[in-house]
Amino acid sequence: MATTKLGFIVQRPGYKSENPKLALTHAIASQSVEIYLDDGDEVLCDVAFVGDGVLNCIKDQKAVENYDLNSTESHVKMGLLCDLNIYVCKEDLEKFGLTESDIVLNAEEIGGDMDVKVVPYAEISKMMEEMKHLLFF
Amino acid sequence: MATTKLGFIVQRPGYKSENPKLALTHAIASQSVEIYLDDGDEVLCDVAFVGDGVLNCIKDQKAVENYDLNSTESHVKMGLLCDLNIYVCKEDLEKFGLTESDIVLNAEEIGGDMDVKVVPYAEISKMMEEMKHLLFF
Amino acid sequence: MGKLTIGCFASLVGSTNLDFAVKLSGAALEKGHKVDLWVSGNGVGISIEKQRPFKDYSSLEKPLLELMEKGLNVTACEACAEARGFHDDNTLAGVKRFSMDWYLGSTFDADRVLHIGGE
Amino acid sequence: MGKLTIGCFASLVGSTNLDFAVKLSGAALEKGHKVDLWVSGNGVGISIEKQRPFKDYSSLEKPLLELMEKGLNVTACEACAEARGFHDDNTLAGVKRFSMDWYLGSTFDADRVLHIGGE
Amino acid sequence: MKLAAFVSDYKMTVDTLDRLKPEKLGIVLVQNGVYHATIKEGGNASSMLNYSADYYVLQEDLETRGLTASDVLDAKVKVINFGDIVDLMFNDYDKTAWL
Amino acid sequence: MKLAAFVSDYKMTVDTLDRLKPEKLGIVLVQNGVYHATIKEGGNASSMLNYSADYYVLQEDLETRGLTASDVLDAKVKVINFGDIVDLMFNDYDKTAWL
Lengths: 137, 137, 119, 119, 99, 99
Description:
The complex is a heterohexamer, with 2 copies of chain A, 2 copies of chain C and 2 copies of chain E. In chain A, strands 4-3-2-1-5 form a 5-stranded parallel sheet, with helices on both faces. Chain A is of the alpha/beta class. Chain A contains 5 helices and 5 strands. Chain C is built from 4 helices and 5 strands, in the order E-H-E-H-E-H-E-H-E. Chain C has helices spanning about 15-30, 60-70, 80-85, 100-110; strands spanning about 5-10, 35-40, 75, 95-100, 110-115. Chain C has a 5-stranded parallel sheet, with helices on both faces. In chain C, helix 1 (about 15-30) links the parallel strand 1 (about 5-10) and strand 2. The chains are: A alpha/beta, C alpha/beta, E alpha/beta. Chains in contact: A-C, A-D, A-E, A-F, B-C, B-D, B-E, B-F, C-D, C-E, D-F, E-F. The interface of C and D includes residues 41, 90 and 119 of C.
């Protein structure tokens, strides 16, 4: 019975790179990792958006309509539905003049219970300390 | 009998991107473009290294030895062998503390007659004005 | 009406540069222009058949085929494709493969050229 | 001796990130470590057979096969490969294809993880 | 020359625009370049908007990122679509630069 | 944590290093990151060298770019090879960041 914690840190905006999406889809894959592990073992993934990465969280992304591509927003919602801890850096939102009303905060419409956590960078820093491994995107 | 002139502007360092190499190999392809043109018609390509792009011209690149990959330097020499005008921005070299002795200047050892032209940016700017189309890398 | 030559050197999935190139090609064809699309470097990824369309990834096989029906002229850099293990036998029907000189040849009588770099 | 899991999401040709990942894998194997290499995103380009080796392009088929002989464990993201038109039938012998959970599974008992992003 | 420059990134790694001195400059904000039109960082508009140029931003790329014409902060930036880009390239400019 | 950060670009588009405060930081200059060790821009050493960190630069990536150990401007930057990177990762650091 062991747990390995991974921290996914998204530092760059989306669409111009596949990385932010892949960060989320890989973190979501923690839902099915058991097939590779012994009973009771698990891998838990936290995701944090920092720097320009917070731009990935602006809501109402019309990527399907314009590029026939699932939006990064929809991947954030999937992450919430899968009960991932998803952090967004408060200071970086403020730097861009964005507020909580500008970003995706929950996944209620698809039945998600978790909320995006808008937190000071210090809390993301603490999360990074607690993780066994970090993956920067 | 017509000539179309293309200006290839390399703005970024090499190896981390395929672009600088592709700029040179595409410009060199002007040697064989006749098969697509009428008799007497031609496409001429000038290449200019500006900004961080001048780092592509540092000599003695050991890319074959380390990555089994032809160096950007070797492509610059091929360009000279094919009589391309190859410009390197003087101000940018100076900014990096580089001199002509640090960069590839000719392709004598493979029989090239042309020299790299280290010129003020103003001359590269003039070249860009004269070209029909510009391609930025 | 004029001729537009677009070169795109970016991956099929990632930067959406190829998506941009395909959409711009469509818009130019719509307005009656002739359009050549040259893909080189990682851009040759668009020349492969049987891309499985998932909504999580840029999927350009279908829009490309539709635009080729409307006259879009698509050529992939042969060496760039071969180096990546993309060969004649899995090249999308209608996409040509030539050397880099094809791109220059296309620019010869192009009224406008848009060169979109890659990674 | 420990276990190193490397993830690489960058193209076969371009950034040399995959060259870096392969060389680092070799160095770690040399020192007696166990190495898992996960390729996803554009990194799946390394999983295709019959890359034609030109010196103008990163060519990693041969070094990868050599390292797999020495125990390197290589797995490519199946969905990322399929989306690009890379299928089972042209996957390099010895390279496995699984879902993204494989990467997480590999990190579970890894002593060190190096995640190299892509374009 | 009359140059249409396409800016596709928010963080630029080249200073090419600072040095180009075309007779006429158009800056077309596409992909992540659209953020230059919509974001003030620390209260300041992007320095990308400081050139003596005509400015355009691609509607499709705004929308993809959760932004709309009403998020564009400066009226000098005109919201356009792909068809408009074609017309600009053919009618208003003679050369292009994708930066 | 003890973090080995890999810097692979000359022009950085993230400020992550400015904010990370690990107990121990190693900065490994690879790919175009090696220029931080060899170039003074306008006479000034790269600000990448200003962190409180142990510095390493990859010999293979120096050589590929026409540079050698003698081009490294600051003695605090140690020239290493791929094998050394493996040892650093396993012996001196517990987490990594590829920036």
